[in-house]
Amino acid sequence: MGGWWSRRTVEVRPRRAKGVLHYYYDVDDRREGLTVNPYVGCSHRCVYCYATYEWAKDFHDVVVAKVNAPEVLKSELATWKGRIIEPVFLSTATDPYQPVEGRLRLTRRIVEVLQSKGVPYYVFTKSATVVRDLDLHARYRGRCAIIWSLTTVDEGLKRELEPGASSARGVLKAMRMFAEAGVAVGVNVDPVIPGLTDEPEGIRGVLEASKASGASFAYSGVLRLREDVWNRLRAFLESRGMREALRTIERLYFEEGRRVGPYRVAPKWYVDRISSMAKGIAESLGMRYGIPVGEGELVAPAERWRAIPLDSYANRSDG
Q: Rounded to whole angstroms, how far apart are CA atoms 244 and 178?
């Protein structure tokens, strides 16, 4: 089919989960926060996806839907040890607004549970279809943020890199709608792919378009490789004659980079150069660089987002 997936259409399999609220960790195994993943597997079929194989070998072809996730989350929050809870990330290993969400509405029901308990949350997505829940998130503005992952605004390249994801045009339109509704909007330029999307004009293009669409903060991340990711990406670049990009990645990851567990990461000087570049561009546009996860850092009115007592906002108005 597409070279890195087997089925023409993605198969959806229902599954009952025992638990859904988990901590997630970065590539160096440092704990970063809480997450809920309503699905395992993804229809976007991004060539660079690191979640493949880590979660399921048929990640691009089968989406497992945790059909009881909202009920399980409600139970987990009811028995949460202690009175405080960190913001919840939706999602860290798959897209909560991929196509099947339109039918199952698991993410919407999960968000309703979080809102009922006063828990703040971030939505991470590549999809423009999150607008179907604009009303839901808008009533919780000040306690949630919608963050789009946008690798490039070059529609042709985007379509090749992530054939199942929304267009850049659709994402930017969705950003604008949320920003106009008063919801905090951010953009994640991730992954930056060496030799392919790491030129200053490309990163600037994403950040300028996002700023114009209402994004108030931005951040970036550099490609990380694992054997399966490298196999897909190398075949992708070779099939398109992108020899220079191929050589750049080989040099950065296999000659100058380091191995962290099953991953290969780019050398620190390169990662620092990309983050410094993105930070400089974002700040020159009046955007904050970084995810606003600290206390009182998200949007006005300033709330204590890092650790919020359960139910502390359950009876407050949304104004």
A: 39
Beta bridge partners of 39: 65
Cα separation, 113 vs 122, in Å, equals 14
Query: Quick check: 24 and 92 in contact, CB under 8 A?
Result: yes
Q: Which residue has the higher pLDDT, 304 or 41?
A: 41
158: helix, strand or coil: helix
Rounded to the nearest angstrom, the gap between the alpha carbon of residue 6 and the centroid of all alpha carbons in its chain is: 24
Neighbouring-strand partners of residue 85: 308
The closest of 76, 75, 69 to 107, measured between CA atoms, is 69
Asked if 307 and 296 touch (Cβ cutoff 8 Å), the reply is no
For residue 27, count other CB atoms closer than 10 A to its CB: 12
Nearest CA among 77, 176, 66 for reference residue 120: 77
Task: Say what the pLDDT of residue 142 is.
Answer: 85
Return the residue matching tokens 């490039």: 152
CA 86/CA 204 separation, integer angstroms: 32
* H-only helix segments in the chain: 69-78, 101-104, 106-116, 134-138, 155-161, 168-180, 200-212, 227-239, 243-249, 268-284
Residue 113 C-alpha from the chain's centroid: 21
Q: What is the pLDDT of residues 156-180, one digit of tens each?
A: 999 999 999 999 999 999 999 999 9
119 by Cβ neighbours in 10 Å (0-12 / 13-18 / 19+) ranks as: buried
| 6-28 per-position pLDDT tens digit | 777 888 999 999 999 998 776 66
Task: Write phi, then psi, for 26 (nearest 5 degrees).
Answer: -85, -175
